[in-house]
Each structure stands twice: as C-alpha cells, then as structure tokens.
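Appendix B. Raw example, untouched.
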Amino acid sequence: MINEFNRIKTIVYNLEKNIDSNGKMRLIEELIEQAEAYKKQLIETTNTKQLQSNGLDIKIEKITEETFLFKSVMVKNVYDGDYLERFSMIRTSDLKTSNVFEVHNKFWEAHEVYGGNIFATIPLALINDTQSSSLQRLNWDKVKVDVYEVKGEIEISNRGKIISTIEKMFDHYILVREVYGNILMILHYKL
C-alpha cells in the first residue's frame, strides 16, 4: 500500500515539474488511475480483517452497517444467579408491549445465535416508527452495528475457540449463522 501512495506522490511531483500540456494530461490520467487503485486497496483493507488466536485463522469481511435497537444488561456478570432468566422475561414483555414479539422471533429463527454478549436486540429496519418509539420508551437504545461475514471454511465444532478469538477483537458482539444461506456472521455493536 505504501508503494501505491509513493507512486501517487511521484506522479504529482512530475506533474508540478512538467510544462508540456500533453505530458500533464497523460500524468493526470495516470494519477486518476493510481488514486482509484489506492482507494480500492484502502476499502479492501478496511473491510477485511484477519483474526488469529487459539490456533484459528479467521478472515472476516465487513458487508454492511445496520441500525439495531438493543436493551443493555444492568449487571457485570449476567450469569450470576437467575439474572438472565429475569432479563429474558423483561425482554419478552417489552417486545409484546411494543407489538414486535413475532417479528423479533422470526428474525432470530433465521439467525441462529452461536454466542455473544448482547441479549436483547432487533434490527430497526424490521419495525415501524411506533414500535421503535415504544421500545425506546422501555429503555431500548439505537446502536450502529457492523455486520461481518466470516470467510472460508471454519469448523463449527471449534465454536468455543471461535468465540474466544472474536472476543479479543470485539467488545460487544453476537456470532450468528444465517440459517438459509448457512453464512457465519459477526454482529459488532458499536456501543
């Protein structure tokens, strides 16, 4: 990537020194070409990440950014006592009160959760403004979520290793498998 940037700098330098208009035109076309190639490489680098840990080499590619609603947990360790069970009951009540229970369930039936640390969430695009407002009054917040596709073949039997590798890169996430396309994805919640 440094080579591409240096080529751009060289072209600009030659452009400044060149007084011939035909030469300048050729250099400008070359500059545009190099800038486009550099831009493409930057986008590729930004959207693709390599995760290496626990003997796993996971390549992920950002495919989109979506807005979700989510309800945060109120304790540090959700596994203490019956907190998750109580939280689940509150989540269900919120979803039913806001008339989005069925939509929520259909979405999560199509996306099998393999692990993560977000326990109440729904894509904003699946619900209407009234339903969104109702959930927000019940302390659900809007959050931007980067959606990454896991590239290549990953043994699902390594689920524990996959999750611990992902935890090192993302603080707030859900690892899901899109059922219909059998695609492994990471939802990274930018909290």
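End of appendix B.
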